[in-house]
Write a structure and sequence with these properties.
By secondary structure, the chain is an alpha/beta fold. The chain has two domains: about 120 residues, D-Maltodextrin-Binding Protein, domain 2; about 90 residues, Periplasmic binding protein-like II (D-Maltodextrin-Binding Protein, domain 2, 3-Layer(aba) Sandwich). Helices cover about 35% and strands about 30% of the residues. It is built from nine helices and eleven strands. A hairpin with a 5-residue loop joins strand 2 and strand 3. Helix 1 packs across helix 9. Bound molecules: phosphoribosyl ATP and magnesium ion. Phosphoribosyl ATP binds next to helix 1, helix 3, strand 9 and helix 7. The site of phosphoribosyl ATP has 23 residues, from helix 1, helix 3, strand 9 and helix 7. Keywords: Amino-acid biosynthesis, ATP-binding, Cytoplasm, Glycosyltransferase, Histidine biosynthesis, Nucleotide-binding, Transferase. Belongs to the ATP phosphoribosyltransferase family. Short subfamily. InterPro entries: ATP_PRibTrfase_cat, ATP_PRibTrfase_CS, ATP_PRibTrfase_HisG, ATP_PRibTrfase_HisG_short. It holds the Pfam family HisG. It catalyses: 1-(5-phospho-beta-D-ribosyl)-ATP + diphosphate = 5-phospho-alpha-D-ribose 1-diphosphate + ATP.
Length: about 220
């Protein structure tokens, strides 16, 4: 049996590998749930836990909201950056988990005079994975931009003249520094949120609520 057909007794959690998975483990532990398989060493995409009623789907970070929206997962953990691009349709977002914290920023080549370009009303070429967030940000400043959609390694774009600026998430700033880029504007702080399928919240409330409560307690402690 390896399907995740959601009946009332099964809870399916969608997580992405890496920092979100790692930072969600302690929250699951607080709810009495231990993931018994390691996604870094296993090729399995559906992981078991010590609770036969709870399983974990490993999906791309940007796909978490989609799985939850359509009810293929009952709940999931996703960054605010990802949720803003997805739009949040069909999702209930009850808890800021304060994990995978970072910021969304504008960065440019070290030699590029961003302030002057903006002040003079230049048309900026902006490369980003976060087109909705970038569009809104520059529209609210009245800056005209040509958005170039990328799917990763945004830091490369200004280095090779693909764009004047990038909008990306930054945590230590090490990647920007290593590529001679400068952070010129913070757009917003980012953290990861618990997202719950709206139908599951009603139909599986009894199973879900204790887990949501434990996540809430564990995430506001630190
Ligand atoms: O990696 P993949 O393409 O599969 O997807 P993803 O990058 O969306 O997933 P993942 O797992 O890397 O990130 C999941 C979530 O973690 C994001 O949606 C953010 O909300 C959050 N987060 C926190 C980050 C970072 N910190 C972060 N530093 N996401 C990405 N980064 C990148 C950053 O863009 C930079 O390129 O990591 C690189 C190193 O950052 P510095 O500043 O520490 O050098
Ligand atoms: Mg990544």
């Amino acid at each position: 049996m390896n399907t995740t057909e959601s009946d009332g007794s099964q809870l399916i959690l969608a997580l992405s590998k890496g920092r979100i998975f790692d930072d969600t483990l302690p929250l699951l532990e607080a709810a009495g749930i231990t993931v018994t398989e390691n996604p870094e060493t296993s090729r399995k995409l559906i992981l078991n836990t010590n609770d036969p009623g709870v399983r974990v789907l490993i999906v791309r970070a940007t796909d978490v909201p989609t799985y939850v929206q359509h009810g293929a997962a009952d709940f999931g953990v996703a960054g605010k950056d990802v949720l803003l691009e997805h739009g949040g349709e069909g999702l209930y977002q009850p808890i800021d988990l304060h994990i995978a914290e970072c910021r969304m920023s504008v960065a440019v080549n070290a030699g590029f005079d961003y302030e002057t370009a903006v002040r003079q009303g230049a048309r900026l070429r902006v490369a980003t994975k976060f087109v909705n967030t970038a569009r809104q940000h520059f529209a609210s400043k009245g800056v005209h931009v040509d958005l170039i959609k990328l799917y990763g390694s945004m830091e490369l774009a200004p280095l090779v003249g693909l764009s004047d600026a990038i909008v990306d998430v930054v945590s230590t700033g090490g990647t920007l520094r290593a590529n001679n880029l400068v952070e010129v504007e913070k757009i917003m702080d980012i953290s990861s949120r618990l997202v719950v399928n709206q139908a599951a919240l009603k139909l599986k409330r009894e199973r879900l609520q204790p887990i949501l409560d434990a996540f809430q307690r564990a995430s506001s402690k630190g």
